[in-house]
């Protein structure tokens, strides 16, 4: 009898422990392992300029704000180059991030490897992924390869290592991709970050200037380590076939600038959408943006380039098929060009843009109609009586529909639209009646997002 009682007691204790573990497992968020195609459908990418993000310009200061980025729906954090910067031939007082002196070390200005790992761990705990900006086309002049492996570099007629022909990148030395040993070293250095820091992929600088066969082989090898996300700073469709997941929507961005400046109109936008259908495959992803580090520093702030059209163009970057980008400071209405080769600081005070980004994040992450990954929602243009100035379209997937209507001009426009029935405004939740016979008047750059 005693044996039976003991056995029953042991069983009850075991069941109790099992229930406790089960409860704890439900309350604990499992760690992220790798990015999936499902993640890409609702993803928003954030470009982190560590040097300028805070007065300190460190990983640790940025890490503190990662939970804030979660409120903006950020899924992927792209870190601008985090490597030591060459001093030889450098530009400005601090040099360019893209003049790398060592691919397997951390820029001490930002912190150390432990700090970087903490940043990545914090991102993972907040259900985000981290990709590193990789500079494969060239290195800085202090890189160890310059001394130990000069054969890794392109040379001029005098046998001298040179910068990339056709550029003013005098602070970097051009790599020679005819050299197989250099290719192998580059692959090994990229693998290092996957193994050592658990990074989730790479944004590859001027990817179109590096041979396609290098990318195809390299990405295949990297994905043997873990599934990773690959972003090409390029537009070429062939890069997306076997190497990259996403490319830059450069021409989309250029059309936004031109329309905002009155140089082009909605006809140019329609032509761009048709061009995308012609050039790219259905599972190709393009990154949509109103700014990034190049645009901000060299071509002007969002306000400088887009003026009063700034908000509607930001919204359009979320509504258009693809993945929207937020660049450091954009969320704080940054209206200055950040210095590229010197210390500068982003002033983090919330203004008009932050609440708009929060609402757009809600829309992007909860409506299948805005899926923008490898199984993106459809895009259908809606006819209006003024297709030169009024852009109207619907996005749709699995029965979920979202409609966008905007006056993309600097003058008030009156128009009719080929739609019937009552719809709900996303921002106001008010009902909007639609009829083909009804006339609508939108102010300059006015827009509406409507939930079908």
Supply database-style keywords.
six-stranded antiparallel β-sheet; eight-stranded parallel beta barrel; alpha/beta; 2 domains; disordered N terminus; 35% helix; TIM Barrel; 452 residues; single chain; Immunoglobulin-like
Q: Tell me the CATH topology of the largest domain.
A: TIM Barrel
Number of strands: 18
Radius of gyration: 25 Å
Helix count? 16
Main β sheet profile: 8 strands, parallel, barrel
Instruction: Give, in spatial order, the strands making up the sheet with the most strands.
Output: 1-2-3-6-7-8-9-10
Give the uncertain stretches in residue-range form: 1-29
| Content-based structural category | alpha/beta
Query: How far do the termini sit from each other?
Result: 69 Å
Mean pLDDT over the residues: 93
Assign the CATH class of the largest domain: Alpha Beta
Strand content: 15-25%
- CATH-defined architecture of the largest domain: Alpha-Beta Barrel
Structurally, the number of domains stands at 2
Q: Identify the CATH homologous superfamily of the largest domain.
A: Glycosidases
The outline comes out as elongated
Helix content: 25-40%
Which SSEs are present, and which pair or pack?
Layout (H helix, E strand, L loop, with lengths): L1 H26 L9 H5 L2 E5 L1 H4 L5 H6 L1 H5 L3 E6 L33 H13 L3 E6 L3 E3 L3 H5 L23 E3 L5 H18 L3 E4 L7 H11 L6 E4 L6 H4 L3 E3 L1 H11 L5 H14 L5 E4 L4 H7 L2 H5 L3 H10 L3 E5 L25 H14 L11 E4 L8 E8 L2 E8 L5 E3 L5 E5 L5 E4 L5 E3 L4 E5 L1
Parallel strand pairs: 1-2, 1-10, 2-3, 3-6, 6-7, 7-8, 8-9, 9-10
Antiparallel strand pairs: 4-5, 11-12, 12-13, 13-18, 14-17, 15-16, 15-18
Helix pairs in contact: 8-9, 11-12, 15-16
């Amino acid at each position: 009898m005693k044996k039976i009682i003991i056995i029953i007691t042991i069983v009850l204790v075991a069941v109790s422990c099992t229930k406790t573990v089960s409860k704890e497992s439900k309350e604990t968020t499992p760690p992220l392992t790798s990015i999936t195609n499902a993640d890409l459908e609702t993803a928003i990418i954030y470009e982190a300029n560590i040097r300028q993000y805070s007065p300190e310009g460190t990983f640790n200061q940025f890490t503190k704000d990662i939970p804030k980025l979660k409120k903006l729906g950020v899924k992927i954090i792209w870190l601008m180059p985090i490597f030591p910067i060459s001093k030889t031939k450098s530009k400005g007082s601090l040099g360019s991030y893209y003049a790398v002196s060592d691919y397997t070390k951390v820029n001490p200005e930002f912190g150390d490897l432990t700090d970087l790992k903490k940043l990545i761990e914090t991102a993972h705990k907040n259900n985000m992924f981290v990709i590193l900006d990789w500079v494969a086309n060239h290195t800085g002049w202090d890189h160890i390869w310059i001394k130990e492996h000069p054969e890794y570099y392109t040379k001029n007629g005098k046998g001298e290592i040179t910068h990339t022909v056709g550029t003013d990148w005098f602070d970097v030395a051009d790599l020679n991709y005819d050299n197989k040993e250099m290719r192998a070293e580059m692959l090994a250095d990229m693998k290092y970050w996957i193994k050592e820091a658990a990074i989730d992929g790479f944004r590859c600088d001027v990817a179109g200037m590096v041979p396609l066969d290098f990318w195809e082989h390299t990405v295949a090898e990297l994905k043997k380590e873990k599934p990773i996300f690959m972003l090409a700073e390029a537009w070429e469709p062939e890069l997306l076939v076997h190497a990259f997941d996403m490319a830059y929507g450069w021409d989309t961005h250029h059309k936004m600038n031109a329309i905002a400046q009155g140089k082009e109109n909605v006809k140019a936008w329609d032509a761009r959408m048709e061009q995308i259908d012609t050039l790219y495959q259905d599972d190709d992803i393009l990154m949509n943006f109103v700014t990034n580090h190049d645009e901000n520093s060299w071509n002007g702030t969002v306000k400088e380039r887009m003026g009063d059209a700034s908000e509607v163009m930001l919204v359009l970057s979320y509504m258009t098929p693809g993945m929207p980008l937020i660049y450091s400071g954009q969320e704080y209405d940054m209206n200055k060009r950040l210095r590229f080769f010197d210390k500068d600081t982003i002033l983090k005070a919330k203004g008009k843009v932050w609440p708009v980004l929060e609402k757009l994040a809600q829309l992007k992450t909860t409506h299948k109609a805005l899926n923008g990954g490898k199984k993106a929602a459809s895009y259908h243009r809606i006819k209006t009586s003024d297709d030169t100035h009024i852009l109207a379209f619907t996005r749709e997937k699995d029965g979920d529909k979202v409609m966008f209507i905007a006056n993309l001009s600097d003058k008030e426009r009156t128009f009719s639209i080929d739609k019937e029935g009552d719809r709900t405004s996303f921002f106001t939740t008010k009902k909007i009646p639609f009829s083909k016979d009804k006339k609508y008047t939108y102010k300059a750059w006015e827009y509406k997002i409507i939930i079908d």
